[in-house]
Amino acid sequence: xxxxxxxxxxxxxxxxxxxxxxxxxxxxxxxxxxxxxxxxxxxxxxxxxxxxxxxxxxxxxxxxxxxxxxxxxxxxxxxxxxxxxxxxxxxxxxxxxxxxxxxxxxxxxxxxxxxxxxxxxxxxxxxxxxxxxxxxxxxxxxxxxxxxxxxxxxxxxxxxxxxxxxxxxxxxxxxxxxxxxxxxxxxxxxxxxxxxxxxxxxxxxxxxxxxxxxxxxxxxxxxxxxxxxxxxxxxxxxxxxxxxxxxxxxxxxxxxxxxxxxxxxxxxxxxxxxxxxxxxxxxxxxxxxxxxxxxxxxxxxxxxxxxxxxxxxxxxxxxxxxxxxxxxxxxxxxxxxxxxxxxxxxxxxxxxxxxxxxxxxxxxxxxxxxxxxxxxxxxxxxxxxxxxxxxxxxxxxxxxxxxxxxxxxxxxxxxxxxxxxxxxxxxxxxxxxxxxxxxxxxxxxxxxxxxxxxxxxxxxxxxxxxxxxxxxxxxxxxxxxxxxxxxxxxxxxxxxxxxxxxxxxxxxxxxxxxxxxxxxxxxxxxxxxxxxxxxxxxxxxxxxxxxxxxxxxxxxxxxxxxxxxxxxxxxxxxxxxxxxxxxxxxxxxxxxxxxxxxxxxxxxxxxxxxxxxxxxxxxxxxxxxxxxxxxxxxxxxxxxxxxxxxxxxxxxxxxxxxxxxxxxxxxxxxxxxxxxxxxxxxxxxxxxxxxxxxxxxxxxxxxxx
Length: 705
Ligand code: HDE
Hints:
Blueprint: H1 11-17, H2 56-66, E1 79-88, E2 108-116, E3 131-139, E4 142-149, H3 162-169, H4 185-192, H5 198-204, E5 219-220, E6 225-228, E7 234-243, H6 252-261, H7 265-275, E8 281-290, E9 316-326, H8 331-335, E10 348-349, H9 354-370, H10 452-460, H11 463-478, H12 483-493, H13 498-508, E11 541-545, H14 552-564, E12 568-573, E13 579-580, E14 586-587, E15 591-592, E16 603-606, H15 611-616, H16 619-630, E17 635-638, H17 642-645, E18 664-666, E19 669-672, H18 679-691
Parallel strand pairs: 11-12, 11-16, 12-15, 16-17, 17-19
Antiparallel strand pairs: 1-2, 1-9, 2-3, 3-4, 5-7, 6-7, 6-10, 7-8, 8-9, 13-14, 18-19
Helix pairs in contact: 3-4, 4-12, 5-10, 11-13, 12-13, 14-18
Region (Disordered): 1-48
Enzyme class: oxidoreductase
Pfam families: Catalase, Catalase-rel, Catalase_C
């Protein structure tokens, strides 16, 4: 992870500066600029008399307040935006004429909005859901929006089904229950009646549905797009974002607890990382298929319920996005950002994917209501960094003052200006794909295989990932009241994998499925498993339990070791009062037990010292250890701290208690007894932190502590 303050002028940031207002040191005024003498008492006829109409300040203040809200997005309502820049690693001239993909020295400003899909604006971050990953590139040729998700496929193949999908997955309309994640009866009813959802359901119920951080998830353009070079040669392409920190998730139990303890968990994580200068980085990857190879695959490359397995079509890494700046104002930036798949630049083009085609209509349309008219492109966050020129005029909230009397084309008064530019001068020319067909409301037969890739996904999961998927079925389908629907789910997923269906049936009280021939897929795609992701300790958060009499020498050593590897420690104690070590050094806790919980951390460390006597008496300390253990996260304990582990779930696995000073590391529990120099221990602990989870431990979490 690079720490590089952005010194070069960023054109989007410069543009935004013109709209920013700093209120510090200013007198209060009305929106007309008139200074206000009192904003706490309305104008009344007598001290105890009625408020009078004349009070223009009261009316303006309250009217504005009354109109503060705009409709939330119909999907992806809860989101969080950050700024950054993108740089290509080497010119992509062969593939595309898009200017921002030519020069490695050019930093293209970006704004990224991460989101959940189903929940409303105030819902929790860590629900099981797809995550939106929408990127606006402010290029010198206009805005390019890559409006993607953290899963590479989608529920449906044709956009006309989207309203049905969203009606089924959002809270049920009679009582608005459940909030934030997929509805139960209506959604699963819809799933079993739309078997093209099978593959996406596997992704949604996998660990990908509960990311640890927006910084630790992949992004995908989902659809097949086209790249076109200056010779007019086109190729099919899929876009990928690969997080430098790897792809990591929460456990379901954590996700649920965090939703209560810290509903802002993912947005806070992103905000803090950027404020701390730990800028999230994502590499841009391209999968490219030559036009001549369009029909070389056993899936249709225009079907958005299919991936292009990375082993078959490798992902070429072509550039990097660095997110280095938090927004100044949530409403004007995150909330007013308007993404649109149709915002493209020359060199990037569309295909006939019917899901993509439908989205091209929806995104512009939805902003008209949400942002109140056709001029939302003038809102600062949406403006391109170059001036736009056309004959579109007027409408609500028009801000541009267009000079002259001409607002039509063609014209002779202004010699046709603004004039359409031919392709050679940078005008966007649609790729001239030959199309010929009858008007039909049918779907291509090549879109009919709904189960092979769902099975490929299942085959590619590690044993722990498979277990998590099964448990997710238990939760989600277990909440469906209608038994017939539950049974249909079992029958549907029997077509993906018989053993999976048998397991689902067991957990949800359905009849066992009869053996059928599953889709004939035996391969795996290792790229699909999070087990094979980048593993790094950087930016992980470790909770450190301390109380009066802790061993400062031990704490100091781990602090130094962790700092070197960008691992963050937070001290947690019974209260916020400063805590003294046995040696007399004092530290200030970052959190007390009352406002922290193990689910907010990636690992736990307990230094030795006399404080263990006290910590052993606190239920909260024991809970910390037990939950960290149950969630398969690393635990480090030194010397006297081992005594605390003896009364917790840790006792279910082997850890050291001998006095040899040897470091012992088992399933992510790292321990040492009788050691003063912790060099070896620290490395073993940080290695365990880099592993993130030690899933084998899930087999031990049931036994009572
Ligand atoms: Fe969207 N989607 N979507 N979607 N979508 C919206 O646009 C839509 C789909 C995605 O941070 C809406 O401005 C249709 C796939 C993201 O502001 C709306 C279909 C993918 C965001 C809309 C899809 C996405 C949206 C709601 C079926 C991944 C949030 C508010 C064809 C590739 C953007 C808005 C942000 C938002 C329509 C399916 C991603 C209604 C009709 C597939 C990341 O226009």
